[in-house]
Amino acid sequence: MKASFDFGGKSVLVTGASRGIGYGVAEAFAKARADLTILADNAAVAEAGETLSKLVGRPVRALQCDITDRDAVRKAIGSFERIDVLVNNAGLERITPIADPDPAIEDVFRRIIDINIMGTYFVTRDALPKIPKGGRIICTASIWSRTAAPEFSAYVASKHAVMGFMRSLAMELGPRGINVNAVAPGWVRTEAAMLSLKRMSQSTGRAEDDILGEIMAGQSLPGLMEPVDIAELYLFLASDAARNITGQTFNIDRGEVMS
């Protein structure tokens, strides 16, 4: 039995929603009758919006915006009158070995920090004047916000920063009646996660299946999650049922990290 949520009349913005976790979360909000807008930096966001619109039988707005572009963010967020729920999901995950002498690694490192930290900051900063009392901000963190992984220093550092950002905002915005929380997914079958798995295999010389098997063995519950498996946690945190919850990071990882 699935939980039932109704966001009819609520304006919801999900960033990084053209695919993966973001798309799964957006689909869940769309099915829960939200007035939904999805945002991503690639042209695929338009197709995602059309697909969701057909699925639920009402318009889902799609915005293409690179959240590291300050002016573009101002323009995109400026098109809203109200944002009841902001889901800061946009992010980049890439391998960044510190010992790799390739100068391109530094560019990748900077891009990850720019998207995962600065982009999240820009979107939140511009959205805040449009978020009313009772509004929700939900950030996508990671179980690597609590732990770490070799050769992913930029991504791990950025997700630690996202969790710290969330905690600080929860304290700052609490007096305004805005709840701020984070979701920390474990391994989910997404394009980004499978690309990371491939690059881990290339870096270590181990088979992808062996690495994935080791990851699964570290979970209390077997199996690899799909985006749909974690979407309801976002709905819960955006709902009135979570009105007394703020400043928290919720692991959803099949028991990989106990905290």
UniProtKB/TrEMBL annotation:
Residues 10-187 form the Ketoreductase domain. GO terms for molecular function: oxidoreductase activity. Keywords: Oxidoreductase. It holds the Pfam family adh_short_C2. SMART domains: PKS_KR (SM00822). Its EC number is 1.-.-.-. Belongs to the short-chain dehydrogenases/reductases (SDR) family. This is SDR family oxidoreductase. It comes from Dongia soli. The lineage of its organism: Bacteria, Pseudomonadati, Pseudomonadota, Alphaproteobacteria, Rhodospirillales.
